[in-house]
Amino acid sequence: MALVEWSDKLSVGVISVDEQHTVLFSLINDLHAAMMKGQARAIVGELLNRLLAYTRNHFSQEEAMLEKVRYPGLPAHRLLHRDLTQKVEDYVARHAKGDLTLSMQLADFLSDWLKTHILNTDQTYGRWLKEQGLKVN
Ligand SMILES: [Fe+2]
Ligand SMILES: [Fe+2]
Question: What predicted TM-score, i.e. pTM, was given to this entire model?
């Protein structure tokens, strides 16, 4: 069973962002499934690295989009992204050093973080874009 499921309630009204969030959800689900199956450390490490790379990529694309439209909430939003990236980097480093108990916690933590961040932070810019009459895809 998937750990996190996408639903329309999570849409931010920007197609490319929704697509990226869906990919993040499926990467988190892959990580969770690999842990549940007790997959080898190398496989889990590979998934963690893929997740970290995609997370960084998504955050920078989201920030670039918000910079383009001069979104006033960008500095605070950027800090939240930075904080999460740091946490995932720490997890990846600990896993690489042999701490194998972390990935399950990470999958739970990330799915909660992502849902909360989308609902409270990403959807806030979604509403702002709408109020400004800005159409971003
Ligand atoms: Fe965000
Ligand atoms: Fe996002």
Answer: 0.94
